[in-house]
Design goal:
This protein is of the alpha/beta class. The chain is built from 5 helices and 7 strands; from the N terminus they run H-E-H-E-H-E-E-H-E-H-E-E. It has a 7-stranded mixed β-sheet with strand order 3-2-1-4-5-7-6. The protein is globular, with a radius of gyration of 15 Å. It starts with 28 loop residues before the first helix and ends with a strand. The relative contact order is 0.17. About 6% of the residues have low confidence.
Length: 173
């Protein structure tokens, strides 16, 4: 898997969002294999996968998922416009705020949300719990009560990423 090194350099104009909220990382090839394997366990028919990657960078993850899971459909939203502009793969991504998106049309949400400010991460968990039904994949251990009222932990799986091995949590909402 080839990480786009340009994504590690931020456009100075976008620093208004805060460095914490724009931290970039990616699954390694081994991590991607693990992600695909776990998705197949939780949704055996790829044609039932309509996923949204929250904070998708240049769409690297969704590019690999749609190639490894034929019949699945993936989209991505990214806050950092300069990352969207660096897209070089045939994926459908757009610049936007994940908290402004509608999650109802998807069966899978992916949020590599470890580096979000606590307030933003809690807003995301609350929005997911209230608005989404399906498989939610999160790198952060959720903390909000509304999330736990609506979510059931399926498994936590160690996955290799550019920053090391980290548990990724799969929830059914």
């Amino acid at each position: 898997m080839q990480c786009n090194p340009a994504l590690f350099v931020l456009d100075p104009a976008e620093l208004r969002y805060g460095l914490e909220n724009l931290t970039y990382g990616s699954l390694t090839t081994r991590g991607m294999r693990t992600m695909v394997q776990r998705l197949k366990v939780h949704i055996p028919d790829p044609e039932q996968m309509e996923g949204l990657d929250l904070g998708c960078g240049d769409g690297e993850l969704i590019y690999h998922l749609q190639n490894e899971l034929p019949g699945s459909r993936w989209w991505g939203v990214e806050l950092c416009g300069s990352r969207v502009a660096k897209q070089h793969r045939p994926v459908f991504i757009w610049e936007g705020d994940m908290l402004d998106e509608n999650y109802r049309d998807y069966t899978v949400l992916h949020a590599d949300n470890l580096c979000l400010e606590e307030r933003i991460a809690e807003q995301l968990e609350t929005k997911v719990a209230r608005e989404f039904q399906g498989l939610y994949i999160t790198y952060r251990t959720p903390t909000t009560p509304v999330f736990f009222r609506n979510a059931r932990l399926l498994e936590s799986v160690p996955m290799e990423a550019t920053w090391g091995v980290h548990n990724v949590h799969f929830y059914r909402i």
